[in-house]
Design goal:
Rossmann fold; 8 helices; 7 strands; binds nicotinamide-adenine-dinucleotide
Length: 251
């Protein structure tokens, strides 16, 4: 308990799946947490649940992560409510199935807007706030799609690949400027969330076929890693990519 006490965290895409588990774990471990999502009903429900667990711990904001002006408003609101920012979890994401031949250009750009533009904007406007707050940790949700060839997740792989590279540039930029802001990426294998359930249903595969030998992870498995990266326990972990896939890539 208390591994991130005194810290202010912002988690995008927090109304569902991994973001929801991340926000819950950060609140449990003592952080004040801003949760954002385009899904207002689920976001408000989680806000109520987390504030019931610890009064005043959580603020929900409606937020499309591809909107530049909304990012500026979200950071301003975060400062007003909690006084600064120490942990930024760029988690919001989407996937539409499409191969190098079947994916449309619109689908390709939609993935880049939601998962790459969002990280660009989050860091452009978030780094100054984190710097002023004394430093912190940026956590970018990537995927094993940056290491393996998933033809059906073509646009998704492009967006996550960009974030994998951006993570290192962000980390080195902050380090060279002595901001005390670290930046790392998490590369999850298949974790049981609504995104994966929907994708596997659309592909006509059962969960077990999706990832036979290694099985499916739980959102809490990723949330435990997020708490570690958010906390000072990981203060020497920077500019790196952490794979959490129960050995999938190694196979
Ligand atoms: N589940 C997995 O196996 C897995 C594996 C690797 C990486 N990831 C990544 O983890 C992150 C979370 O995925 P998940 O599995 O929890 O999916 P999910 O579908 O359960 O949750 C994604 C959330 O992002 C929100 N969102 C979508 N577009 C948005 C936008 N424009 N602005 C703000 N919010 C938006 C959705 O409303 C939803 O609440 C994603 O970046 C995903 O790519 C997931």
């Amino acid at each position: 308990m208390g591994r991130v006490s005194g810290k202010v965290a912002l988690v995008t895409g927090a109304a569902s799946g991994l973001g929801k588990a991340d926000a819950s774990a950060l609140v449990r471990e003592g952080a004040s947490v801003v949760i954002t999502d385009i899904n207002e009903a689920a976001g408000r429900a989680l806000e109520a649940e987390l504030n019931a667990a610890r009064a005043g711990s959580t603020l929900f904001l409606v937020h499309d992560v591809s909107s530049e002006s909304r990012w500026q408003e979200v950071f301003a609101e975060t400062r007003r409510r909690f006084g600064g920012l120490h942990v930024l979890v760029n988690n919001a994401g989407m996937v539409v199935i499409g191969t190098p031949e079947s994916a449309t250009l619109d689908q390709f750009h939609a993935h880049l807007r939601v998962m790459t533009d969002s990280v660009f904007l989050a860091c452009k406007y978030g780094i100054p706030v984190m710097k002023e707050s004394g430093g912190g940790s940026i956590i970018n949700m990537c995927s094993t799609a940056t290491h393996l060839g998933y033809p059906v997740f073509y646009a998704y792989s492009a967006a996550k690949g960009a974030v994998r590279s951006m993570t290192k540039a962000i980390a080195v930029h902050c380090q060279m400027n002595n901001y005390n802001v670290r930046c790392n990426s998490i590369h999850a294998g298949a974790i049981e969330t609504p995104m994966v359930v929907k994708a596997t249903a659309e592909l006509g595969m059962s969960m077990s076929v999706y990832n036979t030998a290694v099985g499916l992870g739980k959102p809490e498995d990723v949330a435990n890693l997020v708490v570690y990266l958010a906390s000072d326990e990981s203060r020497f972990v920077n500019a790196t990519e952490i794979v959490i896939d129960n050995g999938l890539i190694a196979q």
